[in-house]
Amino acid sequence: MNLILLGLPGAGKGTQAKKISQEYNLPHIATGDIFRLLAEEETPIGEKIKEFLDKGQLVPDEYAIMILREKIKKVDISKGFVLDGYPRTVYQAKVLKEMLAEMDTQIDMVFYIEVDPERLVERIAGRRVCLNCGHSYHIKYNPPEQPGICDYCGEELILRSDDREETVRKRIHNQLNELNKITDYFQEEKILKVINGGSIEEVYVEIKKAIEGES
Ligand code: AP5
Ligand code: MG
């Protein structure tokens, strides 16, 4: 089962991807997590990527495609995967389709978690993430058991460097247009499912119903 999660920054892609990944035992592939790790490295490519992240801009397609191609080669996707943060452009979506066709597979379902942009800034301001295992928390909506510590791996939780309010607003602004084009593209492919962004549990229930063929 090959799944994609779409949504603006803070829509809950990472949160839902982790839940799906655990319940259905599918690898969670998050291009944003990969870029953040690369941006920490003092390499020419890491420095370039950091510039885009800090400005709240999308990383150019060539890097995103290269990163995804490498990741898909490394992880076991024989049972499928959950993609979070890719595709971000229609071009990336088309390349992914070709990549999967070469492997005799395809995208089965695309979930678009639709949330009012105004609510996203508040969500991101309260987010704390674990750079080690990729889990994200919210100080109010989804707190860790022990403040500041990841429930899953015990590492310290941090604020993402691109989560300053000004950068968040830029990320949302920069992605709205392209996101609409991607949802249109998947709508035409007849694999798009729009999920109304309620609570974490409500969103997950909707996703599960769709996966299990109940909606
Ligand atoms: P990425 O890491 O993918 O960031 P993003 O799209 O900005 O999304 P976020 O991770 O901020 O939000 P999310 O939807 O995962 O929400 P979360 O579950 O954490 O990408 C970062 C950057 O990398 C991009 O800006 C771009 O530059 C680059 N990039 C990545 N992929 C790329 C690509 N393919 N091409 C080009 N560039 C690329 O939830 C947010 C918070 O809300 C958390 O605190 C959570 O606990 C809480 N929460 C979640 N759901 C709910 C709910 N239902 N109710 C209340 N609170 C909730
Ligand atoms: Mg995320």
Keywords:
215 residues, single chain, binds BIS(adenosine)-5'-pentaphosphate, alpha/beta, globular
Question: Can you offer a commentary on this structure?
Answer:
There is one protein chain. By secondary structure, the protein is of the alpha/beta class. 49% of the residues lie in helices and 13% in strands. The longest helix is centred in the last third of the chain and has 24 residues, at 165-188. It starts with a strand and ends with a helix. The relative contact order is 0.19. It binds BIS(adenosine)-5'-pentaphosphate and magnesium ion (MG). Residues 7, 9-15, 31-32, 35, 52-53, 57-59, 64, 85-86, 88, 92, 123-124, 126-127, 136-138, 141-142, 171, 197, 199-200, 203 line the site of BIS(adenosine)-5'-pentaphosphate.
Provide the β-strand percentage band.
5-15%
| Superfamily (CATH H level) name | P-loop containing nucleotide triphosphate hydrolases
What is the level 1 CATH name? Alpha Beta
Order of strands across the widest beta sheet? 2-3-1-4-7
Radius of gyration: 16 Å
CATH architecture: 3-Layer(aba) Sandwich
Note the total helix count. 8
Bound molecules: BIS(adenosine)-5'-pentaphosphate, magnesium ion
Largest sheet: 5 strands, parallel
Distance between the termini: 17 Å
Uncertain runs with pLDDT below 50, 5 residues or more? none
